[in-house]
Design goal:
By secondary structure, the chain is an alpha/beta fold. The chain has helices spanning 2-36, 50-66, 105-116, 135-144, 166-179, 199-205, 260-263, 278-283, 296-299; strands at 74-75, 92-99, 122-128, 147-152, 186-190, 196-197, 211-213, 216-217, 224-230, 233-238, 254-257, 293-294, 304-305. Bound molecules: uridine-5'-diphosphate-glucuronic acid and manganese (II) ion (MN).
Length: 323
């Protein structure tokens, strides 16, 4: 009797062990085949629970990105391609855009490219928040005909978690300093990939002497945030935390003349700033409130919007087409 119980316990333990090993091997093989052949529909993702589907979808996408992209950190056409810009009599606009993988990334960048392609004498610097660039995304930029530089810069370990895009913007500023001749007139604008930009604002910011500003719609939990103007000068701000922030303005609400990079070197974003302090901490390095040049008809018009795209509620994951 005891003998029988011992034998069946042994058999159950053995079977459990075998079961675990086999399941492990199956899962590993499956993930590998999925990553390797992520373009073909090897696995029916739709039978899996939501979070797992999302994870596997991401795994497939990362596999695609790594495939062929490793070692090609810097790519795209470089700043030299400004030679092909149509008009050298007007200042260059450098647009700096940090971006990162999520389901809406391609849609956001397409929307933004469609705006930027209507602006002349512009160079778009897009910095992928990842180890490597995405060759498919690069193809998108190439297809726009825009003058652009696309490269990868990961978030540094020392950068605080709540800070988004700072290391990427700083890398873009390094790139400008290394490639641009400061005697050629240029302005810098930090344009996130999810905002909405009117064409008017680009033509106005182009002639920024040092620091220009304008209202930003749907920003800071208000209908808009804006500098308040009296006799053509900024006297205060209508904005979130305007008592404690010297320049209480969203990233989308100002442009800098590129020369400040050299005059106030190093002009870089802080990577340990408290929430909402990124913009003000940068601008405090170079400017005084009295120097602000108000645009958008003395800050009486909203020409940019801090729009935010809702995370899509995807129930059916299909990896055959790139979204
Ligand atoms: C607000 C400001 O508008 C941003 O300019 C500022 O960087 C951010 O807060 C902040 O202080 O952290 P918000 O809409 O909250 O923007 O931020 P996102 O639009 O999610 O991100 C800003 C930019 O960084 C976007 O272009 C986004 O693609 C990029 N990003 C975001 C990354 O590159 N990596 C990330 O992990 C997250
Ligand atoms: Mn945003």
């Amino acid at each position: 009797m005891i003998q029988n119980i011992k034998i069946s316990t042994f058999v159950i333990k053995r079977s459990l062990k075998m079961f675990c090993i086999l399941t492990g091997v199956a899962v590993i093989t499956w993930s590998f085949s999925y990553t390797k052949h992520s373009r073909s529909q090897l696995v029916n993702l739709n039978v899996l629970p939501g979070k797992l589907k999302e994870f596997i979808y991401l795994l497939g996408t990362l596999g695609r990105r790594l495939n062929g992209a490793l070692g090609r950190r810097l790519s795209g056409s470089h700043l030299l391609s400004l030679d092909i810009a149509d008009n050298h009599d007007i200042p260059i606009i450098f647009i700096i855009t940090p971006t990162y993988y999520r389901l809406v990334q391609k849609a956001e960048l397409t929307r933004m490219a469609n705006t930027l392609r209507l602006v002349k004498q512009l160079h778009w610097i897009i910095v992928e928040d990842f180890e490597v660039i995405n060759l498919k995304t690069q193809e998108l930029f190439q297809s726009t005909g825009l003058s652009f530089t696309y490269f990868a810069q990961t978030k540094r370990n020392t950068t605080k978690n709540h800070i988004k895009g700072a290391d990427q913007r700083n890398a873009a500023l390094d790139l400008i300093m290394a490639n641009h001749n400061p005697s050629i007139p240029a302005v810098i604008y930090f344009a996130d990939d999810d905002n909405t930009y009117s064409l008017e604002i680009f033509e106005q910011m182009r002639y920024t002497k040092k620091l220009s500003m304008w209202p930003v719609g749907l920003s800071g939990g208000r209908t808009y945030e804006t500098p308040i103007i009296k006799d053509g000068k900024v006297i205060k701000f209508l904005a979130w935390k305007s008592e404690t922030r010297k320049f209480p303005i969203d990233m989308a609400g100002f442009a800098l003349n590129a020369k400040v990079l050299w005059t106030y070197n190093p002009m870089r974003f802080s990577t340990d700033a408290d929430s909402g302090m990124l913009e003000t901490k940068l601008l405090e390095k170079c400017c005084a409130v009295e120097e602000i040049e108000p645009l958008a008809d003395n800050c009486s018009k909203v020409l940019v919007w801090h729009t935010r795209t809702q995370k899509p509620q995807v129930r059916i994951f299909d990896n055959s087409l790139e979204v």
